[in-house]
Amino acid sequence: MRGRHPNRRALLAALAAGLAGPRVGLAQDVYTGQVLQAEKAQRFLLGADNPPTEVWQFKTASNLPILRARQGQEVRIRLGSALDDVVWLHLFGVRGAADMMTIAIPAASSAASDLVFAPPDAGTFWFGPMLDASRQRDMGLSGMLIVDEAVPLSGFADTPLIFDDWIVDDNGKMDQSFGNLEAAIGQGRLGNWFTVNGAFKPRIDIDAAKNNRLRLLNVCNTRTLTLQFKNIDLIVIAEDGQPVKPRPLALETLTLAPGQRTDLLVGNILEQAVVALDLSEDVVEVAFLIPAGQAGEGVADNFSLPRNLLPVADVAAAREVPLVLAGGAKGGLQSAQAGSEVLALRQLLERGLAWAMNGVAGPGGPLLFEARRNETLVIAVDNRTNFAQPLHIHGHVWKLIEQDGGPVEDAGDDAGWRDTAIIKGLATAKLLLVADNPGSWAIQSLVAERSDAGLLGGFAVSDMP
To answer: Are 287 and 229 in contact (CB under 8 A)?
Structure first.
């Protein structure tokens, strides 16, 4: 696995598995023009008084890797790269057209390509590499996509908080053991250093006169974050891009698996609010929120974000399809199909593959399932691995309706829809899905090492109902 680069064979295999190929957008006026450039950079991860670290980054017009769009309006993003590697960019959580949600940024390309789409949902989403993610994501290639509501929220300000961990030594040098098979079989790459918005313990200003919306994103390769907040009152208003019934966070911790997002509305805030990471054996302060100006009036007591228009499930007509996860340390994987071959575990490991879905390891093999447009499915997940698995579905939303044979409580038909589900180790779960977005898509682990090592498969939605 070490140093693997997607080549022509890999790209053709990905296409066979239903993953979108590179596209060049049409030349026409759109809502706004933005540029996203993949490049090498020096960043002071250890703080300004310590040596810098060589990273890869998505450069945008702002000082953070953030893109912006408006719900229902077309946006154009010009893509370029100064890297020596192809970047298969995916927009995680966006229910856009299949041929634009995963797009290749050619290596060291002088000819830029355009990503053009109209996001149907408002919310907090993210972008990053889909292939070779263990290396590219850990080197720093990830960012946040903010989709503003179709009708702007008056008096609101956004505060992005992008959490990451890194494996760096005291001299700022990053560990380069990407693709390590031992890491792929086990927990993955757990960093020893933490940043928020690419900085060590940043002090982030909060405009107290406005209603502040903290947009949290976990871009760690592997680590599930357990976050604590001190000297601040917070209300949960959205999860994984979808509005939820507001609820106070109170003294609870907030858990974010890789790729997950939560939007928090700021209530009362003292002179310095603290964001801390609970590491079980220790609690580490990672950022500080500093209010500035006179406090405003706040939001109405009955405030909630406007709901996105989500599909309506026909539960009575739902078809159940299996999704069996196997692999990893003592995970029951004996053999799997890789491309057109069925390989024993030893042969899989020699190819850097250690995980499988429905007996298929990675892209290039049979599809996990096929569906008709607007068909309601129940994905019956059997996690035979020893690890909790954050599963992400491309181009759709789903919701957990059953865990270990028991129903999951739900507030109604429009609640509980997410793009990521956490499936406990050695557990079963059922996920409700309406296949309303035609095209070729994927389901993948959001632990980068596991996705690279086989925990990624394709499914197709027919354009015919």
So the answer is: no
Phi first, then psi, for residue 338 (nearest 5°) are: -120, 110
> CA 381: distance to chain centroid?
20
Burial 22-32 (b: 16+ CB within 10 A, else e): bbebeeeebee
Please give the helix or strand (H or E) that residue 457 lies within, else none.
strand 456-461
- Is 247 in a helix, a strand, or coil? strand
Q: Please, which contacts does 51-57 make with residues 24 or more away whose CB atoms are closer than 8 Å?
A: 51/171, 51/172, 52/172, 53/166, 53/168, 53/172, 53/173, 53/174, 54/174, 55/139, 55/140, 55/174, 56/83, 56/136, 56/139, 56/140, 56/141, 57/140, 57/141, 57/198
* For range 383-398, the mean pLDDT: 97
Instruction: Place 304 in a pLDDT band, splitting at 50, 70 and 90.
Output: very high
Q: pTM for the complete prediction?
A: 0.92
217, with CB counted inside 10 A (0-12, 13-18, 19+), is buried
Question: Closest by alpha carbon to 259, among 239, 273, 282?
Answer: 239
Taking residue 331's Cβ as centre, other Cβ atoms within 10 Å add up to 19
- Please give the structure tokens belonging to residue 351: 């190819």
User: What's the CA gap between 331 and 361, in Å, rounded?
Assistant: 14
* Integer Cα distance of 430 and 407 in angstroms: 9
C-alpha torsion sign, points 370, 375, 378, 379 = positive
Q: What is the pLDDT of residues 149-202, one digit of tens each?
A: 999 998 999 999 999 999 999 999 999 999 888 999 998 999 999 999 999 999
pLDDT tens digits, one per residue of 1-52? 333 333 333 433 443 333 433 333 333 333 467 999 999 999 999 999 999 9
**What is the token pair recorded at 176?**
């380069």
431-450, pLDDT tens digit by residue? 999 999 999 999 999 999 99
Q: Are 7 and 85 in contact (CB under 8 A)?
A: no
CA 449 to CA 154: how far, in whole Å?
A: 41
Query: Which of these, 227, 303, 209, 218, lies nearest to 265 by C-alpha position?
Result: 303
Beta-carbon contacts of residue 319 (< 8 Å; ≥ 6 apart): 371, 375, 376, 377, 378
